């Protein structure tokens, strides 16, 4: 029997253990190959305004993905090598030379890698069509891409992953030379001592996380902490203290919790609770690093995905906040299709200059009657009745953190007149691009005000987000000066959704890869522990513990390992997303909750799969 055939038989025999590793690797290769394929896709290149942006985004994403895959492969390979050390020692004891054992492990890893590469590229080719359509739809375009095979993408993926698989295969080859024979036989029996709780570490970990949460939830424009560490330094500081705090949380705080549960006899002496909590306590130090990494990765994935999904979810509302009219520009009306037109108003406004002690500001002066008419057409309930000498300020860009509230103040004009600001609204009836901040006065005050009069066109269309053709038709008829003041809801929405849609696409699939990899890491680690515990569960079975009790203990033990980093990751991301929502001034609660539910649902699938595999392993010893 050749070494290659022996390696092949070993893979077939251990296929169930390798399944999630291969599946995760295939999925990673599919996404990487797809990203590289999209980078060279002709259909995306045809989208002139977005092609370079998408190519740059895909290139950057492929590098991030590759970096993560390298870490995942090295981490997973170390678990498999630990499981195989006893088998390797047996080969050595039977007289097989170290060189041949090393070559066998080299071939095993290389075959797994090449099979994953072929499957990943094959699936990636067929999936690229669907993923291209998803990307195009998320970006708001109607084109349907064609299925093309990119030779550049194939060579890029094949070369990079072949190098990675050669590297991990060499790791396997070196195992036989790194350890003594006795160490290989007892590799699975090397464990941790029962850890002692460190009060200092526990308090420090809790304090660091609390400080990170407090800073993240503070307003970056008013907080003394943000001012002290600077805008660039504060996020890095928060990330640093959160990572250290998370490690100490699992390393020390968890020891306090598990020790307290063990001492609570009313709970620990029920069923097999004492055995389950003792097993967790015994290995908590070994798991602390892994759980911390998974918690941070989960927090990163949820934060990035939830933030981008929140922006995508609010894209339309953000556009409509600034552009209440479908089209608006300064100048005379032009000819365009009257289909779907709800209103077309020609307005007379005035460019108003307001001086203060230090500088001057320019506003658009609007008649009360024009405001009330537009507000009714736009479905707003406000109906103004403004007294002489008073005005209502409309500022769609108002932000209470760095914008001034002029309510109750007087605006002095250059000619000596003044307006008293009676009220201030953060919604306008004029588009912000051509009009800016608006002052509404009654019709008599408007007529008496000495300022440059300007004509504006305000148009409202039904199904306005799909009116790109009308937008382009209008632009062609406007002069260069008029085009500078032209604002279009469909065009602004298209530009916004194109950018955020591409980010959502990348964030979603990178998030899935991270989730698949982290889920696999937990799976490998728990299954390694299951094989170590096989004899212990066999003893429990012999003394009368039934299968139902064992399954319940296994499910509880695995639930702690799975749920602890997930809960910590969700809480971390909740505070990070709170800071994100405050920064951009948008409500992202609903999209974030949806994103967290989707992430947790996929994570739960890994939990179910792991419990079944764990139970199957411990039952094999009975």
From TrEMBL:
Keyword set includes Mitochondrion: no
Primary localization class, coarse: membrane
One CC-aspect GO term: plasma membrane
Recorded topology in the membrane: Multi-pass membrane protein
Alphabetical list of InterPro entries matching this protein: ABC-4_Integral_Memb_Prot, ABC3_permease_C, ABC_permease_BceB-typ
Keyword Transmembrane helix set for record: yes
Record-annotated membrane-spanning stretches: 18-38, 58-80, 101-134, 154-176, 197-216, 236-261, 291-313, 497-524, 558-580, 592-609
Domain ABC3 transporter permease C-terminal: 61-170
Entry's localization field: Cell membrane
PANTHER family membership: ABC TRANSPORTER PERMEASE (PTHR46795:SF3), ABC TRANSPORTER PERMEASE-RELATED-RELATED (PTHR46795)
Family per similarity comment: Belongs to the ABC-4 integral membrane protein family.
The name this protein goes by in its record: Putative ABC transport system permease protein
Source taxonomy: Bacteria, Bacillati, Bacillota, Bacilli, Bacillales
């Amino acid at each position: 029997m050749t070494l290659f055939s022996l390696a092949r038989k070993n893979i077939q025999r251990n296929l169930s253990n390798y399944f999630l590793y291969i599946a995760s690797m295939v999925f990673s290769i599919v996404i990487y190959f797809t990203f590289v394929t999209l980078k060279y896709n002709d259909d995306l290149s045809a989208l002139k305004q977005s092609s370079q942006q998408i190519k740059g985004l895909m290139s950057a994403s492929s590098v991030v993905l590759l970096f993560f895959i390298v870490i995942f492969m090295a981490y997973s390979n170390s678990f498999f090598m630990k499981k195989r050390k006893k088998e390797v020692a047996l080969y050595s004891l039977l007289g097989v030379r170290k060189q041949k054992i090393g070559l066998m492990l080299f071939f095993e890893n290389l075959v797994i890698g090449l099979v994953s590469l072929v499957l990943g590229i094959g699936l990636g080719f067929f999936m690229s069509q669907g993923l291209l359509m998803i990307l195009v739809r998320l970006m708001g375009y109607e084109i349907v891409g064609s299925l093309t095979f990119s030779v550049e993408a194939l060579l890029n993926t094949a070369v990079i992953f072949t190098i990675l698989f050669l590297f991990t295969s060499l790791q396997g080859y070196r195992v036989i030379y790194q350890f003594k024979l006795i160490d290989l036989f007892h590799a699975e029996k090397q464990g941790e001592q029962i850890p002692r709780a460190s009060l200092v570490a526990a308090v420090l970990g809790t304090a660091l996380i609390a400080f990170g949460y407090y800073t993240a939830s503070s307003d970056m424009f008013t907080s003394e902490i943000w001012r002290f560490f600077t805008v660039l330094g504060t996020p890095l500081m928060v990330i640093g203290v959160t990572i250290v705090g998370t490690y100490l949380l699992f390393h020390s705080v968890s020891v306090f919790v598990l020790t307290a549960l063990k001492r609570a006899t009313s709970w620990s002496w029920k069923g097999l609770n004492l055995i389950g909590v003792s097993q967790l306590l015994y290995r908590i130090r070994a798991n602390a690093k892994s759980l911390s990494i998974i918690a941070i990765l989960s927090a990163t994935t949820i934060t990035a995905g939830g933030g981008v999904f929140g922006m995508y979810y609010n894209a339309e509302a953000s556009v409509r906040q600034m552009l209440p009219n479908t089209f608006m520009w300064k100048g005379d009306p032009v000819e365009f299709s009257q289909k779907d037109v709800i209103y077309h108003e020609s307005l007379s406004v005035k460019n108003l200059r307001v001086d203060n002690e230090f500088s001057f500001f320019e506003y658009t002066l609007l008649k009360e009657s024009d405001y009330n008419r537009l507000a009714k057409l736009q479905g707003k309930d406000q109906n103004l009745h403004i007294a002489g000498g008073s005005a209502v300020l409309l500022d769609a860009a108002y932000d209470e953190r760095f914008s001034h509230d002029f309510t109750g103040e007087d605006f002095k004009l250059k000619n000596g007149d003044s307006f008293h600001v009676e009220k201030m609204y953060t919604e306008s009836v004029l588009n912000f691009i051509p009009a800016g901040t608006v002052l509404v006065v009654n019709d008599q005050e408007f007529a008496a005000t000495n300022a440059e009069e300007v004509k504006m066109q305000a148009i409202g269309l039904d199904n306005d987000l799909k009116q790109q053709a009308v937008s382009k038709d209008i632009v062609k008829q406007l002069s260069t000066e008029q085009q500078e003041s032209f604002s279009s809801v469909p065009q602004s929405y298209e530009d916004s959704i194109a950018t955020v849609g591409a980010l959502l696409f990348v964030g979603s699939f990178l998030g899935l890869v991270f989730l698949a990899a982290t889920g696999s890491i937990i799976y490998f680690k728990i299954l390694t522990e299951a094989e170590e515990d096989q004899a212990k569960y066999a003893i429990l079975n012999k003394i009368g513990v039934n299968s139902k009790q064992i399954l319940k203990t296994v499910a509880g033990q695995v639930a702690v390992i799975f749920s602890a980093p997930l809960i910590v990751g969700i809480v971390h991301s909740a505070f990070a997303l709170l800071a994100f929502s405050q920064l951009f001034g948008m409500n992202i609660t609903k999209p974030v909750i949806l994103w967290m539910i989707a992430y947790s649902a996929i994570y739960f699938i890994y939990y179910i799969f792991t419990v079944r595999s764990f139970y199957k392993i411990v039952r094999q010893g009975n």
